[in-house]
Amino acid sequence: MDTFEQLEETNMLFTKQDGPQTEIQGFDETDSTSRQDKAWQPVSDRKIRVGIAGYGVCRFGAAFGFQHHPNVEIAAVCDISPERCAELAAACDCQKTYLSLEEMVKDRSLEAIFLGTNAPNHAHHAILCLNHGKHVACAVPAVFGSLEDADRLYETVKTTGLEYMMFETSAYHPPCYAMRTAYEAGAFGKIIYSEGQYYHYFPTPLASYGEWRTGLPPMWYPTHSTAYYVAVTGQSFTEVSCQGFKGKIPQFQPDANRYQNPFDSEVALFRTSEGGSSRMSVCWGMRGSGGETGLAHGELGYMHGTSFQPAEGQSKLPDLSKSQLPPGMEAGGHGGSHGYLTDEFVTALLENRSPLINIAWSLNMTVPGIIAHQSALNDGELLKVPQYTWPI
Questions:
Q1: SS3 letters for 226-295?
Q2: How confident is the model at residue 30 (pLDDT cuts 50, 70, 90)?
Q3: What pLDDT, on the 0 to 100 scale, is given for residue 1?
Q4: What is the spatial distance between Cα 111 and Cα 134, in angstroms, rounded to a whole number?
Q5: Does residue 7 have a pLDDT over 60?
Q6: Rounded CA gap, 147 and 226, in Å?
């Protein structure tokens, strides 16, 4: 186990279309916490016609349960691979297929599209869908290393008036959900200090379209961590200083990846819009580590996990357990978040409102990581973080 070749061999758990790959952590992490007693109530009997794009390594096209939501009809699916497109259609019980998103967006019968495509194209694909009159739900991150794409996406949502939601799984992890509920009830006061960690050991590259994951700068994939502040408070990060770690994993050598990225792990210290601090980490190089976790210290109490520790004299908290999902829908992986993300997006469209993780939240979770990586490349230079507001 001392060589990367041996590590690669022991980490091969299943086979993709062109070879073996490492385990994708989080997919088997479900939520066993309690649910509220109140049963799920539909807000409408209308069915939204949804198109699903992408069925690559992560199989995200079917992972979030759109096909099981009572207010959804999956009316079309697409993937650039005919084989994967057929698999996605079967998984979603859908008859209409396309071999490109560019063709599927022309389908006037579709009201919304879920993007489970490759991260470097997320912003481009979202803008394409919005400009064709479709609401957009998108896997993380909202943009991939580009501040210009962030601004273009923000402006497109603004000009089209359509809804955009990033499917950040940490937002519906039981601890983050409980923190947000407690924060909204005033139990924390302002957050003085928070943490978010995303640890996923990658001794070898995870398979990806065009090998986009090979040597991926950690902070270009920050949202599993940054959600533990932004998706708790709805606030933002204003400044950052970040340190990167240069390890020995081959894919994270500057000449071994398209990004010239030398870091397998990055740890950022952010200043928040509330005047507090957040330490957010994304680490690919920590052997034996895995998961997405966070904590929050407020003026009035502290939470690590789902247990709130109030200051003396605090009033009773609201119910911190999750609500019920529609019949037939499972909470799914990534901490039982998948079904909740889908239900929030669908319900927002039915109620003609913005979803919880709107365009501002999405970019305020994603863009700080881009700036943090710039800081790490500049030996921890303190840099300003762009701000995105809602309502636009």
A1: HHHHHHHHCCCEEEEEEEEECCCCHHHCHHHCCCCCCCCEEEEEEEECCCCEEEEEEECCCCCCEEEEEE
A2: confident
A3: 34
A4: 5
A5: no
A6: 17
SS3 assignment, position 207:
coil
Question: pTM score > 0.85 for this model?
Answer: yes
C-alpha–C-alpha distance, residues 223 and 377, integer Å:
20
- Contact yes or no for 99/85 (Cβ under 8 A): yes
What distances in angstroms separate CA 360 from CA 1, 258, 367, 390, one per listed residue? 44, 29, 10, 6
Helix (H, G, I), strand (E, B) or coil at 299: coil
Distance from first CA to last CA of the chain, Å, rounded? 52
- The closest alpha carbon to 232, from 166, 176, 169, 174, belongs to 176
Integer Cα distance of 13 and 15 in angstroms = 7
For residues 358 and 64, give the distance between their C-alpha atoms in angstroms, rounded to a whole number: 18
Residues 6+ apart with CB under 8 A from 372: 219, 222, 240, 242, 266, 268, 270, 280
Burial class of residue 19 in the structure, from the number of CB atoms within 10 Å of its CB (0-12 exposed, 13-18 middle, 19+ buried)? exposed
Which amino acid is residue 90, in one-letter code? A
What H or E segment, with its residue span, contains residue 122?
helix 122-131
Query: 76: how many CB neighbours lie within 10 A of its CB?
Result: 24
71, 46 Cβ separation under 8 angstroms: yes
